[in-house]
Specification:
Order of helices and strands: HHHEEHEHEHEEEHEHEHEEH
Shape: elongated
Structural class: alpha/beta
CATH topology of the largest domain: D-Maltodextrin-Binding Protein, domain 2
Number of strands: 11
Number of domains: 2
Radius of gyration: 25 Å
Largest sheet: 9 strands, mixed
Helix content: 25-40%
CATH architecture of the largest domain: 3-Layer(aba) Sandwich
Number of helices: 10
Strand content: 15-25%
CATH class of the largest domain: Alpha Beta
């Protein structure tokens, strides 16, 4: 006689997480992200034995090994990698629920909530001011800001490690929603005393023999400039490739060459008279700034409010000199 449908068949484990707790999920996510029990314990303000016990209980509940220890090193098993993805989804949904419910509370004149924003490096020059403007609109909000390369930001967003992000338009294969809210002007810059700095309507051919400082391969700025050079059929003399806007600006100011940068990255240097924007024909060239979020979950609470704020006020708040 077959067993009742509500009971697991003999010899088969019931894999439902009957006794799973949010505490276990949060501790496991911390260990799996840090790949360290001690750092996870410090992050979660608990003892290391408490972290180990909770993870062991989770593994016993699943009947699977999630974390593999080899000496002092910790790694994820294949099951652990999948559990990490699901844990982040669950914890993100819990956060969204807390934010949505928190919107109904208006204690001490504030709305509260935590907004975790990810931005690419060029956007971090205006992101703090944008967040502070939003804080006036949504009192009591707390912020976490992550700055990284575009592919890392997209991966964190899709992996539920971020709520929303600001970057250029994502590649077509990225499973995220992108909403344009402002333009991102790009210019050719040189040291303030460069011979071309005082000229007007500079033709692209004038750059043929100039030493160029390029961003590293794979960066969105590098890809954009490569495309522009191809459109102009202009070979240029690349003297060095550097990673990061700050390093490139220092090299340009030192007279090592000219470069192509987002205007958001050099506002301070322009105001201080240390950099000059070359007055090229048909410049500046524009890209879009986009607000990114996952397609599989609707924004609510503080995240939804931030989206509405950026789409309404973002273009004005991120304007810059050229």
């Amino acid at each position: 006689m077959a067993p009742p449908a509500s009971e697991p068949q003999a010899g088969k484990r019931d894999h439902r997480l009957k006794n799973l707790t949010l505490r276990q999920l949060r501790l496991f996510e911390a260990v799996a992200t840090q790949l360290s029990y001690s750092r996870a314990a410090e992050q979660m303000s608990v003892t290391q034995p408490a972290v180990s016990m909770q993870v062991q209980q989770l593994e016993a509940e699943l009947g699977l090994q999630l974390l593999v220890k080899a000496g002092k090193k910790v790694s994820l098993s294949q099951a652990g990698e999948e559990m990490l993805r699901q844990a982040r989804r669950i914890l993100n949904q819990v956060t969204m629920a807390e934010d949505a419910i928190g919107a109904f509370h208006n204690t001490e004149g504030g709305h509260g909530g935590l907004l975790h924003l990810g931005v690419v490096s060029s956007a971090h020059y205006f992101a703090p001011a944008l967040l502070m403007a939003f804080a006036e609109h949504w009192p009591g909000v707390k912020f976490k800001l992550t700055v990284d390369r575009r592919e890392t930001i997209l991966a964190m967003l899709q992996d539920h490690q971020l709520d929303v992000a600001i970057a250029g338009y994502p590649p077509s294969e990225a499973d995220v929603e992108a909403e344009t809210f402002a333009q991102n002007p790009h210019c050719v810059v040189a040291a303030a005393d460069h011979p071309l700095a005082k000229k007007r309507r500079i033709h692209w051919d004038a750059l043929r023999d100039e030493p160029f400082i390029f961003r590293e391969p794979g960066s969105a700025t590098r890809q954009f400039f490569d495309h522009l050079l191809q459109a102009q059929s202009l070979p240029v003399r690349v003297t060095m490739e550097l990673s990061g806007n700050e390093t490139i600006k220092q090299a340009v100011m030192a007279g090592m060459g000219i470069s192509f940068l987002s205007a958001h990255t050099f506002q301070v240097e322009i105001e201080a008279g240390k950099l000059a924007v070359l007055h090229m024909e048909d410049m500046p060239k524009m890209l879009d700034w986009c607000l990114l979020h996952r397609r599989d979950s609707a924004l609510s609470g503080v995240n939804g409010a931030f989206r509405e704020f950026v789409l309404e006020h973002g273009s004005r708040l991120v304007q810059c000199r050229m």
